[in-house]
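Comment thread on ticket #2218

A.B. wrote:
> Attaching the input chain for the structure job we discussed in standup.
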Amino acid sequence: MAEDLNAELAYKLTEREPGPERRWEETIEIFEAFVLAMVAIATAWSGYQAARWDGQQAFLYGTSSRLRAEAGVAATEGGQQRLLDVSTFNTWIIAKEQGDEKLAHLYVRRFSPEFKTAFVAWLATKPFTDPNAPPGPSFMPQYHNALLARSDELNAQASEAFSQGTDDREVAEKYVRLTVLFATVLFLIAVSQRFKVRGVRLAVLCVATFLMLTGFFGLLRYPKMF
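C.D. wrote:
> Ran it. Output below, let me know if you need it in another format.
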């Protein structure tokens, strides 16, 4: 009976005071749980950022396409306006040569406001007597086609939006790579728990910790959308 009692007491003491081996396993398990929690949060945040930047990229690409279409319409209308002004001016020249001032004045009234401003400035250069005068109002610095200028402005905005969309796509790809990196950390933690050899388990855990810190550095460095 005494021997049974001693054995029972020894067993209970062993339960209450775990040895160094058990304490080491508990410490590793706590650290692994901590890493898993941090990586799970980082994975969710990285995926969220990747989705937001992808959405911003799609929005900017759509904006760029819309601006290109508007620029094309403005360029077409501007080209037609310029062609009409030049054609009307050529007809004015014919009427002027024929001495039909009434018809010539009628054509002047048909000029667009921008072309008429350049036309007045062109007449001031005495084009009928000065051989060095510009060949026509469209060659004057005062000539300004608002539609063609609008087309250039829209094309510049479209190029800027497309460039920004490309930059946002690169940011989204960076966050996708971080998500993959954090998924690798989760896999390594799961694998490390299968090993019973202390050295192997610590080595895998160290690699996982290094990858986790690398991922956290990326999260701090990359731009964010909230």
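A.B. wrote:
> Thanks. Noting for the ticket: DSSP finds six helices and no strands in the chain.
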